[in-house]
Automatic annotation (TrEMBL):
Residues 343-365 are annotated as: Disordered. Residues 388-449 form the RING-type domain. This is E3 ubiquitin-protein ligase. GO terms for molecular function: ubiquitin protein ligase activity; zinc ion binding.
Length: 597
């Protein structure tokens, strides 16, 4: 499918010249999505074009039928291949990720033709990994206004936000810590032209109900210290005067931390059993419906979802059904059906496992010297040509760590052999290796990876939820499905993490994973519970996908996060998956023997 049409598209709506605040009869539109921290982030120009085309088509069909917006969904993969998992449901203004079930709010902003968006001007900030990310479009417009008026500084202090931007040096500075990060101005293609009825953004704030309830716009930094909320009396543009631009007269307010009641900072969500999934419009309410409608010549399924009471399982089931329908090439509109007696078999909830710092009730020695002496036996007469693979010195020579690691009872020349695998090392080298690790009372042979004791990891605190439902996975048609949901929130790194005291992020949570509900699948589940309690499922490190550091990542135990397809390698069918994950668990010291204890 081609990208959306730009100016002059036949999908344009009625003129808007009569609306206050418009500088002309046409404007430009920017679509934005809300991230997990409550910040609105604009889609790329070509993606906005594509979304707007679908929105205009839906609006026109609704006007002809007299029912507002008709059921319509937009698959973003048609505009950008990297966005293939994402679908936007227009009436509910929600973005749905098909492989994880994550849902995020989206919104539509209209700006004058002479705004930054209308000229294709984007202001971006640089994160700690030297990547560039756009400011929210109303902030881009504010910075561009100041730049056009030859103002050097834009100060957000009057709003309680402790940052200022030097437009000449192109630097954003935290006024308290003086931490600086680069900003830049980039010219791209203009955002798509629209003439649809909507209030045009003329400054920092927006007074529309959608923005008030789902606010959270502001300069984005990786040190999320503040959030911004839009108050309903926002109606004026910031006044630019003097050499410094102060943004204090609009109805936008900054608060020290997120206020979910107003800002909706925790925007990532699942299908809500209480929501109607229909956005009321001036022309009438969009109610639940069934059957097929068409948008741009493509059949759209109006999918009624039976959700009698709030339930994470019901929410996930609704998401899974949408995944299956979307995989078949059918755009999906999610609605709720009226309350009625259910004929479906009740879902069985297995457990909810909270993970804490205590991972074992069994006391184990953690004193470094005691651990080394427990698993290594001192040997004499070591062959002169054998190396210690830890320090790369000959075993007949003193340990290479004799200068860095001192011990009264373990001498540099002492050599030990691990009791099971029989590999030999300088005992002082093993002591140094243990002291530099998790210090949990366990050792892992650096040669063959045999684990001695009970290995634990550095997984942050969180919760693991388990449930089952009768729907089968491809390749396992003879049984139902086990669903695992992992919840981890962002926090501060502890002494066991790479950068103690620094924040870590937790992207993409909750994470939904699937196993077949058969004997082997249930065995894997029980071993995953052991691994979770030992803090082995996740760790804090650098994401292989995004390159982001100081974030929660998987820890070498692969999970299936898709139900209906294995195109990405993260779904079913995969006949070898259960055997592979059992081997990965065993490599972490989690075997069937753990279930007998």
């Amino acid at each position: 499918m081609a990208a959306a049409q730009g100016a002059g598209s036949s999908l344009a709506g009625p003129p808007i010249a009569s609306i206050p605040g418009h500088s002309s009869s046409t404007a430009v539109v920017v679509w934005e999505w809300k991230d997990e921290l409550g910040w609105w982030r604009p889609y790329k120009v070509n993606v906005c074009n594509f979304i707007e085309q679908g929105f205009q088509a839906s609006q026109q069909k609704g006007q002809r039928s007299g029912s507002g917006l008709v059921s319509s969904s937009i698959s973003l993969g048609h505009a950008d291949a990297s966005l293939a998992p994402y679908v936007i449901d227009i009436p509910s203004l929600m973005q749905f990720r098909q492989d994880t079930g994550t849902m995020r709010a989206v919104r539509r902003h209209v700006f004058p033709r002479d705004s930054a968006a209308g000229q294709g001007i984007i202001w971006e900030w640089q994160n700690d990994e030297r990547g560039w990310f756009p400011y929210a479009m109303n902030i881009c417009d504010l910075l561009e206004q100041a730049c056009a008026s030859n103002h050097q500084w834009v100060d957000f202090g009057p709003l309680g936000y402790d940052y200022e931007v030097d437009l000449v040096a192109q630097v954003q500075t935290n006024k308290t810590t003086r931490f600086r990060r680069s900003v830049r101005r980039r010219v791209d293609s203009p955002y798509p032209v629209t003439s649809s009825l909507a209030p045009v953004h003329t400054g920092t704030g927006c007074s529309c109900q959608q923005c008030w309830l789902n606010g959270g716009t502001g300069p984005i930094t990786t040190r999320y210290r503040n959030s911004m909320i839009n108050f309903p009396n926002s109606s004026t543009a910031p006044q630019v005067s003097g050499r410094t631009t102060s943004v204090g007269s609009s109805g936008v307010g900054f608060v020290p931390y997120n206020k979910p009641a107003l800002s909706g900072a925790r925007s990532t969500q699942r299908l809500n059993a209480q929501s109607s999934w229909a956005l009321p419009q001036a022309g009438g309410a969009v109610g639940p419906s069934t059957g097929l409608s068409t948008s741009n010549g493509v059949s759209t399924v109006n999918l009624p979802v039976k959700m009698s009471k709030p339930s994470k399982l019901n929410q996930a089931l609704a998401g899974m059904t949408a995944i299956l329908m979307s995989a078949a090439g059918l755009p999906v509109h999610l609605t709720c059906v009226p309350q009625a007696a259910s004929t479906h078999k009740a879902t069985k909830k297995h457990s909810s496992v909270k993970e804490g710092r205590k991972v074992s009730k069994k006391a184990a020695p953690t004193d470094p010297e005691a651990v080394v002496k427990k698993y290594l036996v001192e040997v004499k007469g070591t062959p002169a040509d054998e190396d210690c693979i830890i320090c790369m010195e000959k075993l007949a020579s003193p340990s290479g760590y004799s200068d860095a690691c001192e011990c009264r009872t373990i001498k540099p020349e002492m050599v030990g052999r691990l009791t099971n695998c029989q590999h030999s090392f300088h005992m002082l080298c093993v002591l140094a290796m243990y002291s530099n690790g998790n210090k949990d009372g366990s050792l892992q042979c650096p040669s063959c990876k045999t684990i001695y004791g009970e290995k634990t990891g550095t997984q942050p605190k969180g919760k693991m939820e388990v449930s089952t439902f009768p729907q089968s996975l491809p390749g396992h048609r003879d049984c139902g499905t086990i669903q695992i949901v992992y919840h981890i929130s962002r926090g501060i790194q502890g002494p066991e993490h790479p950068n103690p005291g620094m924040p870590y992020t937790a992207r993409g949570f909750p994470r939904y994973c699937y196993l077949p509900d058969n004997d082997k699948g249930r065995k894997v589940l029980e071993l995953l519970k052991v691994a979770w309690n030992r803090r082995l499922i996740f760790t804090v490190g650098t994401s292989n996908t995004t390159g982001e550091s100081n974030t929660v990542v998987w820890n070498e135990i692969h999970h299936k996060t898709e139900m209906d397809t294995n195109l990405s390698g993260h779904g079913y069918p995969d006949p070898n998956y259960l055997d592979n994950v059992l081997a990965e668990l065993a490599a972490q010291g989690v075997t069937e023997d753990c279930l007998r204890k």
